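thought: fold this chain, then report.
action: predict
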Amino acid sequence: MISWNVPRTYSAVLIVLVLLFAAFVVPAGSAAGAAAAESNCTDVRFFGLRGSGETPPKPDQVYNATPDQLEEWGRGTYSMGQTVASTYQSFDIASRRFGMTTDAEGIPYPAIPIDLSWIPAGLSEANIAKLVKDYYTTRLELASSVTYGAVKLEGRLELQAAACPDQQFVIVAYSQGAWAAQDALRLLDKSTLRRIKGIVLYASPLFNDHDKWRAGDFSIAQPSRNVHGIVGGKQLPTDILARTYCKAADYVCSADDVRKAPALRHCFDTPPACPHVEYGGYTESAGEWLANVFAFSDLTVTGLTGPDAKICAGTTAQVRASIQNIGRTVSGPFNFRWIIDDRVVEVHENSLDPRQALDRVLQTPSLTSGAHKVALVVDPVSVLTELNEDNNAQEIKVKAKSCLPSSAPVITEVDEYTDGALVYLQVFYTDPDDDALGFGFRGANGSGWAEETHPFSDPSYGRVGPGKIEYPFNHGCGTATPTESDVEMWIYDATGTRSESIIAHLACTGS
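observation:
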């Protein structure tokens, strides 16, 4: 149950420190310790956040705790509160029917209690409602508690995701904890967010009855009435299965009618007259529903490999694929799609049992020279409901090369021109295989030019054009002592095959 006891009075300085600490709160447990525990990873971890004022631990204890204490309090259901802990008990029992292992972690955030005892008696319902809303939206202690919980949950999810790469997560939270959980969702990176498979919220101050996951007195079968929580309305992600429960008479999550507000002052009367503490009736069915989130198949491409040997252009290739159902139920019939460049081949398969695998071979069409994309996509139009839609495809590159005898480049023309002190040797060539890579030269007939080779991609002082290379040689043109020389030049291709060399006599124009 939620507690509405008188809160501790915090000084302004302490509030600022709490806000700063919440922004940099260190998740319980070290990265090294988490990595060491990978062998003990369960299938699913249940993260729980208690409601306002639920203990243990108390706010002061949380703010003053060591990392070891926070880690200890986070184990199991100790710091979850009654509503969330009851949901985990139901979830754990139902999960065993699928052979699924679970563990639980409570997020030990302050969860400061709510105090409305200061509201004077005799006020109108409208005035009480205004004071309650102001309390929720302007009280810094409450904001810092929520921020602490959000950042703590974010940190623990990301650390656990790194420690247990195959583990999946669910989040259950009540009241102030639901507020913190919804704030945490927008802090998470996409890869961690995809690991969250189910969410259950009770009495969220951010409830929105436009939410597709609404539950409780606001079922999806009923039209929206534009109702939202006392803090505002924020919808849950549409791609994570969820339930957000709200009672119509609970002003915390259903703040559309001021007549509901006075009941918040009577949550612990005898008997209680406060709908906000009456969510226990949902916990058993919510836990069972959360377990059933995992009662789906999950087809994944576990391998996609091309041929080991060289592939000759103009021939076909074999690509091997492995597909497995790593889910917990039979998949049902499905299709998978081969994609070879822009060609598509659709194949139909029968059902796969849990953990059953199959291997398939694709014989590609005749491949042209160059790289080709080969991809496999399972259930390409999402006919099946799966635990994970992000593991249904893989892609590889398959490269084909010409296996015909190489035809060497052919030098077709030679020319020269003078530019300043330089004489440029121009060589024109053709290349039947279109694989010419560069050129080389050296002095001939006693000329002293040292041998050099250069790729067309980095031609040193040369100038490269289509089917042409120009290279300068310094002959002192325009000076009193111009020189002449003979140069041998050739073109080479990707196989190292050279053209026939030419020998050109270079002299300054007019000399």
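thought: worth noting. The longest strand covers residues 410-419.
final: tokens above.
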